[in-house]
UniProtKB/TrEMBL annotation:
This is A-kinase anchor protein 7 isoform gamma. It comes from the Eukaryota. It comes from Colius striatus. One of its GO terms (molecular function) is protein kinase A regulatory subunit binding. Pfam families: AKAP7_NLS. Residues 18-214 form the A-kinase anchor protein 7-like phosphoesterase domain.
Amino acid sequence: DEKKHLGKEVVKRPRETPNYFVAIPITDDQILDRIEDVQELIFTKEPDLLRAFIPVQTMHLTIIVAHLGTEEEVKKAILALKQSKTKVQAILQGKDFNMTFQGIGQFNNQVIYVKMLEEDQKMLSRIADAVEECFTKMNLDISGSKDFKPHLSFLKLSKAPRWKRRNFRRICADLYKEYEDSYFGTQIFSHIDLCAMHKKKQESGYYYCECSINMGFSDMEESKE
């Protein structure tokens, strides 16, 4: 009403639910093993949270989410991702980018994640901006994307209805305090994937990939996967 009074009536376009996302896969065994250790510890203290765990086979950092409503839009998204390679490699300047993970953080005590070192986050933000720019130029719907904050989620309360039925609305930090400042490991940035949220996952347990771009320098050979 206030906006109408000011003569500015805002027309909101209904936002489509994202069905795709652009991700950096996390495959380093040390990181994945350490995440499983934390999940096992939490499970011993609170078995009802089992359904809230995110399988390590799906571990990734989300860069952007998108709503791709047609096959044509999926093709445009693949093209946008391919076009981003040159921009990203210009940022990397021929050097490997090692992403270091240390410590555990949380969003509203609902999502628990492994933190990335701050200097690595800055580099990743630049990479995310380059990818986002290519998607925007293609006029693709990435309006569902939030401000970029790289995090490696391994537990989401929304996935555990039993826990919610018991009227718990938050995950207590005591459940994982032994690992709160632990070093989890280092992942070499090597791929960016365009993944489908709702298509059947691969045999490995990772998401269905429409396209995977090799970004590594130490091994420029495309992976057989």
